[in-house]
Amino acid sequence: MQEGVSQYAAVFDVIDRRRSVRAYADDAIDERQLRQILEAANAAPSAGNLQAYEIYLVREQDLRRQLAAAALSQDFLACAPIVLVFCANPRRNQARYGDRGRDLYAIQDATIACTFAMLAATALGLATVWVGAFREGEVRRVVGAAPHERPVALLPVGVAGESPDRPPRRSLDRLVHEV
């Protein structure tokens, strides 16, 4: 390991431990841990630091069931004690960045924030899975998002009820293209 890298090695451990978990124990999430996850999402970089996203925190069982239905019957969403819904808010950066800000940067901002939340949850010993398959209009209705907000990711958070194996990955020589 290079000098100075060892003090930051924990981030590599978190990345290595992260798995897509689709089964959750009945345990509640500690409020302090939830706040740490939300603070991590809030610390995510964003275009022009405009944070063109909103996070909807869903605890209510009936709403989690509705999210599961909106997510094409991915019923595990209703089993996690918390679901975070990340929505792009293109109005926050359209004035500064125009169409590109509206169509791309807002989505990037929301997905980076979701990634930070996912890794923070993993660092705290919790489980998540990124859910991208859902009917946007239904998700928007369930969480009460504004018509201009675009749901881009659902992130159930809870104590793992399963331990998935590491999935196979493409080798770097097939993934990275040096130009």
Structure overview:
The chain has helices at 9-17, 31-42, 61-70, 76-79, 91-123, 136-143, 172-175; strands at 53-58, 82-88, 127-128, 150-158. It has 179 residues and is an alpha+beta fold. A 4-stranded antiparallel beta sheet has the order 1-2-4-3, sandwiched between helices. Helix 1 (9-17) crosses helix 5 (91-123), helix 2 (31-42) packs across helix 5 (91-123) and helix 3 (61-70) packs antiparallel against helix 6. The longest helix has 33 residues, at 91-123. The chain starts with 8 loop residues before the first helix and ends with a helix.
**Class per helix and strand makeup:** alpha+beta
Please state the average pLDDT score. Answer: 95
- DSSP E strands, number: 4
Order of helices and strands: HHEHHEHEHEH
Strand order, largest beta sheet: 1-2-4-3
Instruction: Label the overall shape.
Output: globular
Distance between the termini: 27 Å
How many strands, which pairing sense, and closed or not: the largest β-sheet? 4 strands, antiparallel
Give a quick summary of the entry.
This protein is an alpha+beta fold.
List keywords for this structure.
four-stranded antiparallel β-sheet, NADH Oxidase, 4 strands, alpha+beta, 179 residues
Topology (elements, then pairings):
Layout: H1 9-17, H2 31-42, E1 53-58, H3 61-70, H4 76-79, E2 82-88, H5 91-123, E3 127-128, H6 136-143, E4 150-158, H7 172-175
Antiparallel strand pairs: 1-2, 2-4, 3-4
Helix pairs in contact: 1-5, 2-5, 3-6
